[in-house]
Amino acid sequence: MTRTGWGYDSHRFIKGRRLVLGGVLVPFEKGLKGHSDADVLLHAVIDAVLGACALGDIGTLFPDTDPRFKDVSSLFLLREAVRLVSKRFSIRHIDVTLLAEAPRLGPYRQRIRAKVARAAGLPVEDVSVKAKTNEGMGFVGRREGLAAAAVATVEDRPRRR
Fold first, then answer.
1. How far apart (Å, rounded) are the C-alpha atoms in residues 151 and 6?
2. Is residue 74 part of a domain?
3. N or C: less crowded end of the chain, CB within 10 Å?
4. Which residues on adjacent β-strands are paired with residue 95?
5. Is there a domain that residue 70 lies in?
6. Looking at residue 44, which CATH number applies to its domain?
7. Is the pLDDT of residue 109 over 90?
8. Which of these, 20, 154, 22, lies nearest to 84 by C-alpha position?
9. Is residue 32 part of a domain?
10. Mean of the pLDDT values across residues 50-65?
């Protein structure tokens, strides 16, 4: 059976922190506030993968009350989520959209695709990474933070009898 999951995340900007998007360090004057590295793009992907498999969400698996996840790389969190879901499911496709007025994602898109694909165990052609502005509207438009939405498609692994 094929399943689809949807994920969303948002984080506010904060001074004095580096900006990591899709596992790639992006030069910018602010980073994102969060318990882990606050990689909003990967957090949406993780929630999409977990949602497709009905396995909860990133906060359930990696709670911000657990000191083990303080400042941890979200690539590590994605690999752990993939390890968990791969017991029963096979990820087939990931599509993620970053909502940002700035920074521009274009120069980093291919590196992000490659990192997401590697962490998810997919060929890079099965990972799509896009960015859109919010046309000046809302917290993204006011440049207060970033948001991301993702979709993941998975298939059941054949069960042994």
1. 5
2. yes
3. C
4. 128, 151
5. yes
6. 3.30.1330.50
7. yes
8. 154
9. yes
10. 92
3-class DSSP assignment, residue 98: strand
Looking at the 3D structure of the chain, how many domains does it have? 1
Structure tokens at 143: 């440049």
Q: Which helix (H) or strand (E) element contains residue 128?
A: strand 127-132
CA dist 85 to 56, 80, 90, 158, Å?
11, 9, 8, 14
Gap between the Cα atoms of 6 and 149, Å rounded: 7
By residue count, the chain amounts to 161
Query: In this structure, are residues 58 and 51 in contact, taking their beta carbons and an 8 Å threshold?
Result: no
What range does the domain containing 38 cover?
2-156
The structure tokens 């919010």 sit at 134
pTM beyond 0.90:
yes
Answer for the pair 21, 75: CB distance below 8 angstroms, yes or no: no
Q: Is residue 161 part of a domain?
A: no
